Amino acid sequence: MTFPALQEYLSHLHATPQADTSLWLDENGQAHGRYFNSTLTSAFQPIRALDLTGTPNQIIGVQGFMRSYTKTGSGLSIWKLLDTVATDDQSIELDRLCRLLHAVNFYRQPDLVDVDLYLSVHARLLAAVDSNHGMSFRRVLDVLGLPHRKIVLQLPLILAEQASLLNYVADNYRRNGFRLAVNAANAQHGLELLQQVEADVIKVDVREITDEAAALKLLQVTADRNVRVVFKRVETITVREKLIRLGIQSQQTITAQGYLWDQPKAQLKDAEHGVIATADLA
After folding, report:
1. Given the DSSP bridges, would you call strands 38-50 and 254-256 parallel, antiparallel or unpaired?
2. Nearest Cα residue to 216 out of 245, 182, 196
3. What is the pTM of this model?
4. Can you tell me the distance from the alpha carbon of 264 to that of 22, in angstroms, rounded to the nearest whole number?
5. Tell me: the pLDDT tens digits for 144-178?
6. Which residues on neighbouring strands pair with residue 23, listed in sequence order?
């Protein structure tokens, strides 16, 4: 699938950075941006379905990470570099640039038509919903002729006393047609979030799964509600074995993400499964 409005937009981008524009394309067609005298680029980490042996199969989504650009790699997290120096207004401006970069780098690849794009919402931006952040992003996608239903906006882990803020933010994004993922500290927290917010995805740090009974209950309840569970930060064989047990006991397909299988890359070709993926807001 191609997107004519996006192709028209890309055709007008320069091959090198210009003084009057924040985006340009490199020789590979990858979009880059400039902010705070930093060159930015997108990197994507796959979210995969696992079989009952813990083998990663189909890529069902990718999470976009913004990085400072280097010719030898994907660089550092730009949010970590700017977290202590950027004002709230500057963070909002950066967030909008990052989302544009991710959208361009994701949708310019027709092979990703069946894959979801997960974009994180930085904790500093939750209060910015008063400016209707969701509508701003929706308008950008509409101008470029890009479908918004493939995008999952991922809300940060927040404290229990911030539940009203979580619902306020979630409602804003949902009204603009986006699907939502929420981060849970552990399986029990995931069960609590299901009662607090209408999420499409619950992301759980699998390293914090110490109560496997709660994890099995979470898998059962989410399956009944057609909510996806993504186990993130799979980094060791021990964690992988935990996921195998959960898959066997629940008899469900486990969805997972982690460095055990995939490093975030600007353009990732999965030759084994024939899927090409291309760039969290941390």
Report:
1. antiparallel
2. 245
3. 0.87
4. 23
5. 999 888 899 998 887 666 677 778 888 888 888 89
6. 33
